[in-house]
Design goal:
31% of the residues are buried. The protein is an alpha/beta fold. It has eleven helices and 13 strands. The longest helix has 16 residues, at 162-177. α5 packs parallel to α6. A hairpin with a 2-residue loop joins β1 (3-14) and β2. The chain binds adenosine-5'-diphosphate and magnesium ion. Residues 5-229 form the ABC transporter domain.
Amino acid sequence: MEKILTVNKLTKKFGYLTAVKDLSFSIEKGNVYGILGPNGSGKSTTLGIVLNVVNRTSGDFSWFDGNTSTHEALKKVGAIIERPNFYPYMTAVQNLKLVCKIKEVSEDKIEEKLELVGLLDRKNSKFRTYSLGMKQRLAIASALLNDPEILILDEPTNGLDPQGIHQIREIIKKIASEGTTILLASHLLDEVEKVCSHVVILRKGEKLYSGRVDGMLASYGFFELKFNDMDKLKSILEDNSSFGEIKIDNGLLTAFLKEEMNAEVLNRFLFEKGIVLSHLVKRKESLEEQFLTLTKSQTN
Ligand code: ADP
Ligand code: MG
């Protein structure tokens, strides 16, 4: 796979506060990456560092093949890390023409990009008449004018109404389907699940998980069981390699699966061991619960 960005043991300290700690991950061409974490977990700082607007404390990062200077590389990056800011009394087209002049790219793509973000019919409206969602979409069009290799977005749907959120997500998916790599920061699990193929989960600047989104979601669920001799039940389950963590709480045993198993199979297995359960329920953790488990389970 072709590498777009490699981040290696990146650390950023603001005085005593470590905003990003020893963070490593890499971004490969054609995927949609989410940096997911609660507010203050270091998402914007990480994006700021790789975009050269925040100085790193230690560690490093490299763009593309590793031989491209950051200055050169950033010409092939489209990024929106702040609230969209254009000239209020100029139209969308006038604003984008100005962006083309500043970026030294041709004006040929203006209509195509406005079409992509659904603003072609409003191209001659003044920026100040745009809704927040339209402003955000204009910013995306602007960031795409030079056909970047990668589009970077920081909390692209913050502050938008449900319809605006939906439009932005659909546009991101469309841009990705045309082959542009995407990196977006979000504190919304649901957003990452809907839009991204890969995720880096941060908590207090530290990486908790990185990999495919469906890998994060892969959980085989757990059983809740009751039997009159809980310790015996527990020790039998502990000898079964299908189970990971097993705990007993308030007279209820919870056994987490490491692989697929249905209730019938477990029931028969235990019955053959002389265990007749008084309670058997199979549950699957919701995504939300898994994310909360991931972000809570590290204490410092
Ligand atoms: P996120 O984008 O995930 O919400 P940030 O990267 O903005 O998180 O912030 C990470 C941590 O670094 C937070 O505790 C934040 O208060 C702190 N921080 C960010 N920027 C600065 C700064 N310029 N000066 C001091 N602290 C900062
Ligand atoms: Mg942020």
